[in-house]
Design brief:
The protein is an alpha/beta fold. It has one domain: Rossmann fold. Strands 3-2-1-4-5-6-7 form a seven-stranded parallel sheet, sandwiched between helices. The longest helix is centred in the middle third of the chain and has 32 residues.
Length: 297
């Protein structure tokens, strides 16, 4: 019997790449999405990659009854997942003053509430199954997708960044709480990559036109860093240390295969260096520098 992976927002971007990777590992994969058309397209494409089962469930994680729908579906299909990837997220391109209350609630519902409830449900389910099958190798894995934004206050998108700070803290705490239950937690802070949510990702065209800055230089000095003479697409990739979703997923899987026991993975050398150097700078200074970054939402 194949192992089963459940991936929220598994129809595009990181979720889709994780689905491909685990299908190739002979997992049965259940992808969740609120976009019916993307879900249908992704399922059709993924079904060509493996003889393992690819299942899909259309649901809205911002609604109060989504967990019952998942539980019912798992029972109906006789699925016993050992892997959960919390990839679904919502973002917005405005500050708190201009964002609507409805939008803020939706972001909190998906980025915090849904992630927390899914994590609790699957962690407890896997833990109970492990205890009933003592002595067997039934390690569970829960991957929560956070963001580099979670390390810094960002007045350009304060709610989104704060939800990612929650994911980092929440997941690291659970890695310790469930350490004796044979469940591994991995918190992934991806490098900048093309996102499935137009409202949550940067506008590449702006980066192509304004290739005169660097996130690293901007954070630490606030000064422009001109990538003169470089083609636009090379320029913004160097400036923002961008990666494709496939590269982010491959890096995460490589970490899981390694002997490292770290539960927090920060993707991208520039991100790691920025985070290290930020320890020596006043928080007020960092917040001001982050706020001064060009806005490409």
């Amino acid at each position: 019997m194949n192992k089963t992976a459940v991936i929220s927002d598994g129809s595009s971007s990181l979720g889709y790449e994780f689905a491909k990777a685990y299908l190739r590992k002979n997992y049965d994969v259940l992808i969740l999405s609120s976009n019916k058309e993307k879900l249908k397209t992704a399922k059709k494409s993924l079904s060509k990659l493996s003889s393992s089962r690819i299942l899909s469930l259309h649901l809205d994680l911002s609604t109060p009854f989504f967990l019952k729908e998942i539980e019912s579906f798992l029972e109906k299909k006789d699925l016993q997942p050992s892997l959960l990837i919390n990839n679904a997220e919502l973002g917005y391109g405005e500050n708190l003053q201009t964002a609507s209350l409805k939008k803020i609630k939706e972001i909190l519902d998906v980025n915090i509430t849904a992630l927390s409830l899914l994590t609790k449900f699957f962690a407890d389910t896997i833990s109970a199954r492990n205890k009933s099958k003592a002595g067997m190798n039934n390690q569970g894995l829960i991957i929560n997708i956070a963001s580099f934004s979670g390390f810094f206050a960002n007045s350009q998108h304060a709610v989104y960044a704060a939800t990612k700070a929650y994911v980092i803290s929440f997941s690291e705490a659970l890695a310790h709480e469930y350490k004796d239950d044979n469940i591994r937690f991995l918190t992934l802070c991806p490098n900048m990559h093309p996102s499935a949510h137009p409202s949550a990702h940067f506008n590449v065209s702006v980066l192509e036109k304004k290739h005169w800055f660097s996130s690293f230089a901007g954070l630490l000095s606030g000064l422009p860093y001109k990538l003169s003479g470089l083609p636009y697409k090379i320029g913004y990739k160097l400036a923002y240390n961008m990666s494709s979703p496939k590269q982010v997923v491959e890096s995460s899987l490589a970490h899981l295969r390694s002997s490292s026991k770290k539960s927090l993975v920060i993707h991208g050398r520039m991100n790691k260096l920025t985070l290290f150097l930020a320890r020596f700078l006043p928080r007020q200074f960092i917040t001001k520098r982050v706020a001064a970054q060009p806005k490409f939402y």
